[in-house]
Amino acid sequence: VLISVGSLVELKGFHRILPILPRLRERFPGLRYLIVGGGTTQGDMSGTLRAMTTELGLEDCVVFCGPQPPEQLKWYYSAADLFVSATSYEGWANVLLEGMACGLPAVTTNVGGNPQVVCRKELGAIVPYWDAGAFEATVVDALHADWDRSAIMAYARDNSWDARVARQIAEYRQVLSRWAAASPSRADVAAALPAPAGLPSAQVKMPGKHS
User: Would you state the torsion angle of the CA atoms of residues 27, 35, 46, 23, taken in this order, to the nearest 10 degrees?
Assistant: First the structure.
């Protein structure tokens, strides 16, 4: 079972994954592809994606799950074996970490911050954008691989919101200390700055596989 989660807009690349599914089904006859998401003010490719699904004869393979509230996503991630994303643009893709929080390795494109999220081969694979053949071959390898899903979940926990915010605050404090050390007058300014507020409690729990 493959899964992609995101807005059904062009840059997310759902339409790039659909054409490789017929060949994947030759290797994995029971393959299913879960598409979780809906249209936004930036666009809505749901009609196009459904038409492609019919044209490619994938009606019994592709499942359009619609948009889901964050607290329900864990059930969809936990039903899958591999997260796939053929996106053409990303910053720091939290959706990759959401899947990893449920033990999912990821196959995605070499754009934006994706290589920083999928930063080790134990977490998944990065594919050049856009090389359909390489993406297909990488998905095949990933579906055959024996993944350490506990290690993937541990990586996601280490990159939770609270952990990331704490690291960023620490970085800013180091920068401020170096800035203040360069001049006595700066040290006075730094000392006068208010202490950072406490970190908020985590708003999203990262569920374990099949939790």
Answer: -10
